[in-house]
Write a structure and sequence with these properties.
single chain; 7 helices; alpha/beta; about 15% strand; about 210 residues; Rossmann fold; six-stranded parallel sheet; about 35% helix
């Protein structure tokens, strides 16, 4: 929230240098509801190469929730990279849920992120190999929203976790807003996507769609 697809420009360039085709998707939570954003994400992938073609998604923060909402409509998804995902209701969103400024800026997205009982149980869990990368360089004082636990300044490490059949969780020393530019994160993403490329048809291409 509050970012654009430009935030993933450096990672996108690095992925292209590694031989991937990339296409970035941006959205505005102040304008559209999450259902609309997720539907347009599916349309974006269709324009970029087709939902049935083999592709991976590299998402940052809320982009991962958008992707999870879209999962039933992405049959060609082969790998999913989640950077700093709020896979569990984030403490910060719950803390600010009644703040009028937060509500005005985040609208439907902010409301849903704070909705542990109504929204989160509806989110599909990825059924493809998934890499979750969580940052750890946020504040650790006891009165923070994360009560001294590891976090990236926006999302707690425990809030990024997700149980699934083929999900790997790693932590890196990075903050939320810049985790996608971390060289170590780039190496993790490239290695993870390379495993997909090795398994793909040699005649095909691997596309990486970034959702901030």
């Amino acid at each position: 929230m509050g970012r654009t697809s430009v935030s993933l420009a450096l990672l996108s360039a690095r992925l292209r240098q590694a031989g991937h085709s990339t296409s970035s998707y941006g959205y505005f939570v102040t304008r559209d509801a999450l259902d609309v954003i997720a539907a347009r994400f599916v349309e974006h992938i269709e324009r970029a190469g087709g939902v049935d073609a083999d592709f991976a998604v590299v998402g940052h923060s809320l982009g991962n929730i958008v992707t999870r909402m879209a999962l039933p409509h992405l049959p060609g998804l082969r790998r999913f990279v989640m950077l700093a995902p709020p896979n569990q209701p984030p403490a910060l969103a719950r803390l600010l849920a009644q703040n009028p400024v937060f509500r005005a800026l985040t609208r439907d997205a902010g409301r849903r992120l704070a909705d542990a009982a109504g929204f989160y149980p509806t989110l599909p869990v990825p059924q493809v190999p998934t890499l979750i990368v969580a940052g750890t360089t946020g504040p650790r004082f006891a009165r923070s929203p994360w009560q001294g636990g590891d976090n990236d300044g926006i999302v707690g490490v425990d809030e990024t976790r997700l149980d699934g059949p083929d999900i790997t969780h790693v932590t890196v020393e990075a903050i939320h807003t810049l985790i996608m530019n971390n060289a170590g994160v780039t190496a993790l993403v490239q290695r993870f996507l390379a495993e997909q490329a090795e398994q793909a048809d040699a005649a095909g291409d691997t596309a990486a769609i970034e959702a901030p």
